[in-house]
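Check this:
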Amino acid sequence: MPFEPDSLPHEVELPNRKFGKLPNRTLLSASNRIKCILSIDYGTTYTGISYVFSNESELNDIATVQTWPGDGRDRDFEWKTPTVIAYGSENNFQGVKWGFMVEPGMKSYSWTKLLLDKNAPKGKYDDPTLTNIVRKGMMELPKGKSAQQVCEDYLREVRNFVFARLDKENGADFMKLTPMECWITVPATWLDEAQDATREAAKGAGFASRSMDSINVIPEPEAAAICALKKLTAPGAPDSLKAGEDIMICDCGGGTVDLTTYSVTATYPLLDFEELVVGEGGKCGATYIDRNLHTLMTTRFGESFKKLDPKKTGPGSKFMQSFERVKRDFPKGFDKEKGIGPLKLVSKNPAHYDDDDGTVKLSLADMQSLFDPVISQVIALVKAQVQEASKLNHDIDRIVLVGGFGDSPYLFEKLGAWCKTNGGIKLICPPAPQAAIARGAALRGLAGTAPSLKKQRRHYGYEVGRTFDEGVDDATKAYIDPFLDQEDQRRIQEMVWKIAKGENVTTKTVRSQSLYFTHKEGSSSFTQTVELYSCNLDTAPLSVEHERVVQVGEIKVDYSEVDLNTLESTYKDGKKCYKMEFDVRIEFGAVKGILVFSSWIGKRQVGTASLSFAK
């Protein structure tokens, strides 16, 4: 039936750890038990982990994993491990290999994270070639597995490695009795469905698998902001941040670029900051550069390149590993050209290929052509945020680059030049920008640091019934409501948006919608589905059929505990029908980082309400 609006006691022995402030052999009761706070920065190309115990207090107390398994590391210490997995069933080994353990030539899977948000409408700043990627190993999936399942398989290996490290450092008995609070990061622009899929993949992998554990979601730029702002407001920080400054966090990762701008309202005694404007982002991260390289290779070498086995040209291949080293440092150490490879190609142009050692030659102009389209998208995103802030009479004082791509010297050079000619904005890239997101997410759990106010990124609402307007509405879409007077029974469905894009959101932001439906006597079903929609346009349309209106999912309401005899009733087609009136409430600023639902009759919460997504 269509819906109607009413109107709009374990004790724990602590180990003696070599870092931190854990007291030696201290006993804590369950009520004040120390927690392990662990963050997972699951990225398109690389994944990072940080953790800290709840009796710590500072950013410097947070440990970040830097020693990862595998022989593929360039250095002994790496802030992250590659987000890539290879299955033994498709290779010549048992089990799975992941991260640095995946070797060139293995059948492997990477960039899978981007497939979690495959249902999102194409964004203004997305890489235009992204939807055309069909090359094996690049956004490909194993037969019989979904993107969420591949992510879960990968995260399970990460979880097993990290948990073994925690057991080694702290003692397995201690960790068995220590609650764990997990924070997993997601792009701020992602649909709720993709955020939920990431969270569910982490849960399926074994994170927060015990009843005493919990798992929360935090947007990547928010996590990065927490880390950056804490550093910039720490006592003795050089060029410290002051109250009243506006700062933009530019999170440039492998798959996505996310921007959020904040106003710092206080730095002492506690840091307080608010989102200034609605954040923006796009799927235009460093993998965009890799796709540009493949396009260039196809243009220059044609079938000679295209027919090569993807194991030789895809992510993790020797060819792409050599390009990654050039890309990471560009333009540092770049004179006239660089050679990448090896690849066996057929070419008659010695300017592009060295047949003796099998290397592809890339000139300075070539490298710029690979980078510049991506840099242009990043600058366009920055420019848009600056303009939105200007509408509120705010000038951006600083931009902080974080993320793996955020460490690019070429990006810093080009964006820095733009900043100088656009108000002299300070551009900074802090040490270890790759670790900022994981460390910030851990600090969120440790200290509770978070923006006191956020900006809603999209509209949310329901399709509900209103009086049919003769001569205006489509009669074929009208329906009859038996609980209304005979002459007013015809109704039509229309969108009612309960929260608008750009609205202020705090931890107390709740929106309620009063609805009703009919329950026929004798029916064995005591659940009802309410469809929730969203739209990221500045002005939301009234019709659910608009191409930019997205079904978020279905809210399932269980009303089995409701006494039907207390409800208004009528008869339709000879059957008694009960009028089930209830409110659906959504918490938009819940600490756990996801939408939280509940169903109410009057002032009493009844049954349950949960959101499910189409698979």
About this structure: The first strand starts at residue 12 and ends at 13.
